[in-house]
Amino acid sequence: MMFYKSSDHLTPVSVEEYHRISTLLAKEYRILDEERFSDWLDLLHPEIHYWMPGIENRRRENPLEYGFFDSKHMAYFDDAIRDIKRRVSRFSQPSAWAENPGTRNVHIVAGIEAFYGEEAGEYCVYSTFQNIRSRGLDEEYIFSGRRYDTWSLVDGVLKLKKRLILMPNATLTCKNINTFI
Predict the structure, then answer these.
(1) Which is nearest to 53 in space by CA: 35, 29, 77, 34?
(2) Angle at 94 between CA 91 and CA 30, to 5 degrees
(3) For 51, left (φ over 0), alpha (ψ -120 to 50), or beta?
(4) What architecture (CATH level 2) is domain 10-166?
(5) Hey, how many other C-beta atoms are within 10 angstroms of the C-beta on 62?
(6) Beta 44-53 vs 75-79: how paired, if at all?
């Protein structure tokens, strides 16, 4: 399964479409920072695949399917819409000890590149991100990485259909990864 394609053969979007897409990515992060998860769910395509594979340290002469990760190996997230809704629902449960006290998030998106996808009304969007998570008095974790998204028009509204999240870390040093990136 090829989750993302090199942008070498893709056509960049117009300035107007770039503005629309980059504004949407900033809005998505603001919604997540404000914990408006039902609004965030509205941005998701019913067929979403939200994937953050584990990164493996491999010698260059012994690569995996995609270099440092493989679709058949461990993933932090490998979610469809049902899985994501379940995670969102869990945030509001009293038994969600990892969210009491709540995590404070600041998401930053940068390095946005947007291209027309292979299908009409589809866009390939590449970006870099930083997610700063703070909890309690002194817990702070910073995640950085790249995202490879496919956004698709559904009834004139852009919906996130695929997201591949790649962090350079082979090991995450946080207690949990109870966040959306």
Answers:
(1) 77
(2) 25
(3) beta
(4) Roll (3.10)
(5) 6
(6) antiparallel
The three-state secondary structure class of 110 is strand
What is d(CA 103, CA 135) in angstroms, rounded to the nearest whole number?
Answer: 5
pLDDT along the chain (181 residues), means of 10: 62 97 98 95 97 72 59 81 93 70 90 95 96 85 93 96 86 74 84
- DSSP element (H, E) containing 26: helix 15-33
For the chain, the domains span: 10-166
Is the CB of residue 100 less than 8 Å from the CB of residue 133? no
DSSP readout, 73-104? S-EEEEE-HHHHHHHHHHHTSTT-GGGSSPPE
Instruction: Please identify which residue in the block is written with the tokens 């998401």.
Output: 107
